[in-house]
Amino acid sequence: MSNITLRDIAKALNISVSTVSRALNDSHEIGEETKKFVLAYATKHNYIPNRMARSLKVGKTRSIGVVICAMDNSFVAQMLDSIDQICTQSGYQIIIMQSKESYEQEKACINLLYANGVDGIMISPSFQTTDFSHLKELQLQGFPIVLFDRITAELDVHKVTVNNIKGAFEATTHLISSGHTRIAHLSSISTLGMTHERFEGYKQALAKHQVPYEEELVRFCNTADPQKIDENVAKAMKELLEQKPQAIFTATDLLSTKVLAYLNEHSYKIPEDISLIGFSNSDLAPILNPPLSTVRQPSRQIGEIAATTIINLVKGKDIGPAETIFLDTELQIRKSSSR
């Protein structure tokens, strides 16, 4: 990006930042004369030249940027498939980028997508992300953004996610109803709402059924570094198993399968020695050893609603103020938690 900013343009032309942004994004809310005025100044001062050159020649690119953590699990793949289907039907192509759970890479993805002229961005933030200023900047400019799956209260934009508290509550309640009172919880280190909500659902279930909360049965594991995931999960599991839990509730798709593999490798009989249930959309869950009990998320519905929302925003449709849509999860009980 060049040194000139939207605020510089707004100050020079004595108009608001939002007006400048909407003019550069060819919004229907801005008159043609104002658009020409702003575009001429921006072009003269080399404001994001690649983006401006494209806008001046062909207008909108009919492309949507999609930023996800990684494409290596079924849940994300299912969401992307639905997103692609909705966007294709609407005449938009998607450009998919992976943050790999890195805040710096996430920022780079956003900057690159914006500089290359996408009409809107859908993002599921990385676990490392605690500073959302890179997205707030675009939000203040009126640029269309939709958060999906992982959300934060830091941004006042449209969001689509699941009822994490309810899903975690139901999973923990299932373990309690199976006779377990020492239930461990393993989650990822993150400031995102998902992590706290699933932890909260776990605690609410314990409280409702008068099962004491024990801090030593909870671990938050660093899953942001792909080179150290197995090492970090092994360390967390060793510490948890020293507390002799009767069951484990895992909070992410990745952790669910990693924990199952760890228990099998260390000769634990599941569910005889220890029960296991976790959030997971893996199509392999029914055929794992043993079949894995899961909290299944409506991945395709998340993708469909999020994609429909971003396209409506890009088209300038009035869909009302920013809101968060919470979708219900589904408890799928299999042998790993049912004797």
The CATH H-level superfamily of the domain at 164-296 and 331-337 is Response regulator
Task: Sketch the topology as an H/E string, one letter per element.
Answer: HHHHEHEHEHEEHEHEHEHEEHEE
Proportion in β-strands:
15-25%
The first-level CATH class of the domain at 164-296 and 331-337 is given as Alpha Beta
Mean pLDDT: 91
Task: Give the N-to-C terminal Cα separation.
Answer: 59 Å
Specify the biggest β-sheet.
6 strands, parallel
Structural classification = alpha/beta
CATH topology annotation of the domain at 164-296 and 331-337: Rossmann fold
CATH architecture of the domain at 164-296 and 331-337: 3-Layer(aba) Sandwich
* Outline type: elongated
Q: Tell me the number of helical segments per DSSP (H or I, 4 or more residues long).
A: 12
What does this structure look like?
The protein is an alpha/beta fold. Among the domains are: 1-59, 434 Repressor (Amino-terminal Domain) (Orthogonal Bundle), CATH 1.10.260; 164-296 and 331-337, Response regulator (Rossmann fold, 3-Layer(aba) Sandwich). The chain contains 12 helices and 12 strands. It has helices at residues 6-13, 17-24, 32-44, 49-58, 74-89, 103-115, 133-140, 164-177, 193-208, 229-241, 253-265, 299-314, and strands spanning 63-68, 93-98, 120-123, 145-148, 158-162, 183-188, 218-221, 247-250, 275-279, 293-296, 324-327, 330-332. The strands form 2 sheets. It has a 6-stranded parallel beta sheet, with helices on both faces. α9 links the parallel β6 and β7 (218-221). The longest helix is centred in the first third of the chain and has 16 residues, at 74-89. The radius of gyration is 23 Å and the shape is elongated. It starts with 5 loop residues before the first helix and ends in a 7-residue tail after the last strand.
